[in-house]
């Protein structure tokens, strides 16, 4: 069983952030070509993996860093500031690979993650919505299904997918070699083009039971308190950090545009209205970041005591992500309005705005999740609890 002790707070955070920053100029320079390619170049991916960004969410006992939640938010924020698509890719690989290592039984995890410190381990991508169908057979399941949005799958060795067991309705998550699925190659979008978030499918593939785990588990078989959060809450960590990094970059890019245009004839950025709206956007971003930090600090205290988050904490995790996404979307609208032609020509502003528009559509920030948060907080469903993104 996993360590039921205190939450691990890693001493490796500063080093990971420093290594990410050292790659910043390269990520910026290569972002346009990565969009054309539809994924990160392999050498860029290897350089990012070498920073420890994926190792950050792997269990300490297997050789990972096992960052605490706010440390994971900082790491996601930093890489996403330099390149939103690279950040999205790494957040996806980080979370899915980390949870696989935590929730599979020790023998299976040891097979997939034999030498994490030296980079010898599986990398996983995939998706948990629209579960596939699984027929129980001796020793495992015969699985068929169609899944969407396998962000980072170009760099993965294995696939993570949700499925529903025929006859019982139980939802589980599988791990299988990438070679056992067909990638549909249908990622034709305006934003996050370099994430290779294609759909994929398989038909009647045998998956041993030991390569699956219950989708609702909050009991790690490897690793400590972090993994008691469960899949949805761990996903919220990465998306919160990604959104904050993108928002910060957009305001910094707007500041550069303003500096270049100040004093020119008829410059909109010289108006009091621009100054007021920039200040409002800055305040909104900083406030969203501070509140997300506050929510996660409280959750960390709970995990450190060996407890599970309460329904209120689960609600606030979802609400903080939804609020951060809404706030940064507003930042994007402000930047787009005042940047003028800089927002429509090829460059960082155009790219980050498009990436934000796509990333903000993620299901974890959907209006339905916001409605469910309000239902619980308003007292309309006091006895309800969260099952994935539904309040039941």
SSE order and pairing:
Layout: H1 13-22, H2 24-37, H3 42-50, H4 69-82, H5 84-103, H6 106-112, E1 124-137, E2 140-147, E3 158-165, E4 171-177, E5 182-183, E6 200-208, E7 212-214, H7 230-261, H8 272-304, H9 311-339, H10 348-359, H11 367-377, E8 386-387, E9 390-391
Parallel strand pairs: 1-3
Antiparallel strand pairs: 1-2, 2-6, 3-4, 4-7, 5-6, 8-9
Helix pairs in contact: 1-4, 4-5, 4-7, 5-7, 7-8, 7-9, 7-10, 8-9, 9-10, 9-11
Descriptive notes:
There is one protein chain. The protein is an alpha+beta fold and 392 residues long. The protein has 3 domains: 13-118, Butyryl-Coa Dehydrogenase, subunit A, domain 1 (Orthogonal Bundle); 124-214, Beta Barrel (Butyryl-CoA Dehydrogenase, subunit A, domain 2); 225-391, Butyryl-CoA Dehydrogenase, subunit A, domain 3, CATH 1.20.140. 49% of the residues lie in helices and 14% in strands. The strands form 2 sheets. It has a 7-stranded mixed beta sheet. A two-stranded antiparallel ribbon has the order 8-9. Strand 8 (386-387) and strand 9 (390-391) form a beta hairpin. The radius of gyration is 21 Å and the shape is globular. One of its GO terms (molecular function) is flavin adenine dinucleotide binding. Keywords: Oxidoreductase.
């Amino acid at each position: 069983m996993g360590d039921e002790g205190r939450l691990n707070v890693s001493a490796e955070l500063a080093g990971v952030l420093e290594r990410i920053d050292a790659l910043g100029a390269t990520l910026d320079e290569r972002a346009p070509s990565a969009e054309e390619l539809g994924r990160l170049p392999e050498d860029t991916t290897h350089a990012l993996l070498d920073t420890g960004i994926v190792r950050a969410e792997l269990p300490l006992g297997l050789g990972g860093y096992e960052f605490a939640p706010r440390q994971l938010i900082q790491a996601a924020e930093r890489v996403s500031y330099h390149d939103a698509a690279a950040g999205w890719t790494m957040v996806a690989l980080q979370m899915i690979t980390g949870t696989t290592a935590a929730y599979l039984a020790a023998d299976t995890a040891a097979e997939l993650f034999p030498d994490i410190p030296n980079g010898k381990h599986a990398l996983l991508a995939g998706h948990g919505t629209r579960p596939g169908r699984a027929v129980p057979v001796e020793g495992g399941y015969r699985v068929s299904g169609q899944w969407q949005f396998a962000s980072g799958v170009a760099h993965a060795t294995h696939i993570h997918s949700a499925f529903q067991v025929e006859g019982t309705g139980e939802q589980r998550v599988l791990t299988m070699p990438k070679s056992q699925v067909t990638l549909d190659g249908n990622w034709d979008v305006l934003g996050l083009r370099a994430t290779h978030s294609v759909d994929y499918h398989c038909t009647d593939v045998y998956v041993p039971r030991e390569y699956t785990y219950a989708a609702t588990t909050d009991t790690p078989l490897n690793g400590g308190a972090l993994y008691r959060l469960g899949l949805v809450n761990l996903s919220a960590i990465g998306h919160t950090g990604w959104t904050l990094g993108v928002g910060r970059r957009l305001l910094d890019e707007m500041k550069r545009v303003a500096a270049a245009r100040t004093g020119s004839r008829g410059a909109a950025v010289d108006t009091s209205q621009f100054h007021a709206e920039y200040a409002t956007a800055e305040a909104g971003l900083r406030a969203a970041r501070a509140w997300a930090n506050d929510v996660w600090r409280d959750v960390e205290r709970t995990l450190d005591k060996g407890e599970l988050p309460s329904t209120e904490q689960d609600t606030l995790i979802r609400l903080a992500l939804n609020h951060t996404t809404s706030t940064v979307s507003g930042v994007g609208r402000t930047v787009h309005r005042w940047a003028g032609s800089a927002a429509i020509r090829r460059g960082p502003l155009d790219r980050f705005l498009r990436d934000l528009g796509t990333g903000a559509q993620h299901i974890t920030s959907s209006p339905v999740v916001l409605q469910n948060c309000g239902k619980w907080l308003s007292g309309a469903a006091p006895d309800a609890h969260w099952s994935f993104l539904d309040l039941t």
